[in-house]
Amino acid sequence: MRLATIRTATGHRAVRLDGDSAVETGEADVRALLERPDWAEHAANADGPVHDAAGLDHAPLIPSPEKIICVGLNYRDHVQEMGNELPEYPTLFAKFAPSLIGARDEIELPPQSERVDYEAELTVVIGRSVRHADAEAARAAIAGYTVLNDVSMRDYQRRTKQFLQGKTWEHSTPLGPALVTADELPADPADGGALRISSELSGEIMQDSTTDQLVFGVVDLVVYLSTILTLNPGDVIATGTPGGVGDARTPPRYLTDGSEIVTSVEGVGECRNVARAVP
Ligand code: ZN
């Protein structure tokens, strides 16, 4: 099943994507849908108003998550290009909801940063509350997967040891377009399955890897995070990005006014966003 949050003239709607059409589920967005214990059955049986899938205006998949948790340095090839040792523990940081945009929205390029970079990420969406999970409970808590482009203002990211100020600029982080349940995927990332993950900057391939390069897999991450706090429906876990980011290239490559950045995960979907300078 594939679920999305769309914008309509009268507000957000959570929809089920059925090929060429999108069927309203009666919930305002995918977080509200996932907060129903019967979300999967409810969404599968929904028969609300229908939209043409070609004309959808995608909101961020989860417009207001309780948590957006990001994992840094979690692909073997990216750890190497950044000149780091493989980590013993996950590197964690957060974003806030105002940074999120839809899968086709423009990325705001602030005049204060000259080094705006892209990061394609396989992203877990939580579908039930879980604390102190073992592997089985962690797997059961995963509603499905989506794509997040962890746009990063590298100059701000590197001002101090803490990443946050480079990671949560307003209207910078595409999330979506859809939540895809694991049964739809060619390989299940919870089983360590390899999905191609890539990014393309204005037509040129920049990142091209597979999700079996993850140092900490999706189940490991849910177990680890649920030790720290309760994960709740609609929480978003961006699992890190593979090698090929613009800042690690020679010469470096950054998003500039009018650049188109496409971030994709095989079977999950793609975010396709134009970067736009804002005053
Ligand atoms: Zn990242």
UniProtKB/TrEMBL annotation:
Domain Fumarylacetoacetase-like C-terminal residue range list: 67-273
One Pfam match: FAA_hydrolase
Keyword vocabulary terms for this entry: Hydrolase, Metal-binding, Pyruvate
Keyword match Metal-binding: yes
Family matches, as InterPro entries: FAH, Fumarylacetoacetase-like_C, Fumarylacetoacetase_C_sf
Example GO molecular function: metal ion binding
Gene Ontology process terms (BP): carboxylic acid metabolic process
Family: Belongs to the FAH family.
Protein name: Acylpyruvate hydrolase
Biological classification of the source: Bacteria, Bacillati, Actinomycetota, Actinomycetes, Pseudonocardiales
